[in-house]
Amino acid sequence: MTTNGVILHRVVEKLKEAGLDSLNVSLDSLMPHKFAFITRRNCLDRVLENIKGALAAGFSPLKINCVVMKNLNDDEICDFVQLTEKMNIDVRFIEYMPFQDNKWNLKKMVPYKDMLEIIKRKWPNISKLKDKPNDTSKAFKVPGFEGQIGFITSMSNHFCGSCNRLRLTANGNLKVCLFGNEEISLKDMIRENASGQEILKHIEFAVKRKHKQHAGVHSIKNMKNRPMVLIGG
């Protein structure tokens, strides 16, 4: 589940009791004034405390998703890496991606190789971790740190060929590609009392028509798609 972490303290135990064991927390800045500018909320301290509370409750893996944008938060990359020294978290730096209504601009995108170079200036001994099958993140770790970092390189080095992600939206639609605008409604099938086999057949059909790779940066920015807030992490 992906959350902004604002009210996580109210529900963290209930989520654990319900069987959830991993969390993604969207966090794009560790500076109060930037956090407030990005989220329109003045509650950075609460989010950081809620992350610690989720770790104490046993959530693992706990991933921090940070979308890096030039001249906004690219000066905080090393601060996010520093979080992994004492916390067993996975900070994932995400290249800025085009979605509907996010005013995407190529000049704001920071490629992962540039981010890694910034990190290597402070931690030249940072090491690459072995990729797991279907990983969407390139994982690294600073020796001696509890947690790790990763880069989601959708724009500069796509991983479409090994991506096995399916997304179920809050209104019951299945998306087989984050950047695709084709969806099928599982909710409607369930409400029409479709059998499990019928639903599986429709899922299989959706997966089989998934494209080999996304259309590329300049095509994606002109495609009609849901805003990220309506897709979820």
UniProtKB/TrEMBL annotation:
Pathway this chain belongs to: Cofactor biosynthesis; molybdopterin biosynthesis
Pfam families per the UniProt record, alphabetical: Mob_synth_C, Radical_SAM
PROSITE patterns: RADICAL_SAM
Superkingdom of origin: Eukaryota
GO molecular function: 4 iron, 4 sulfur cluster binding; cyclic pyranopterin monophosphate synthase activity; GTP 3',8'-cyclase activity; GTP binding; metal ion binding
InterPro entries: Aldolase_TIM, MoaA_twitch, MoCo_biosynth_MoaA/MoaC, rSAM, rSAM_sf
Gene Ontology biological process: Mo-molybdopterin cofactor biosynthetic process
Keywords assigned: GTP-binding, Iron, Iron-sulfur, Metal-binding, Molybdenum cofactor biosynthesis, Nucleotide-binding, S-adenosyl-L-methionine
Entry-linked Gene3D superfamilies: Aldolase class I
Chain ranges of the Radical SAM core domain: 1-133
SUPFAM superfamilies assigned to the protein according to its UniProt record, in alphabetical order: Radical SAM enzymes
Classification via PANTHER family: MOLYBDENUM COFACTOR BIOSYNTHESIS PROTEIN 1, MOLYBDOPTERIN COFACTOR SYNTHESIS PROTEIN A
Name of the featured protein: Radical SAM core domain-containing protein
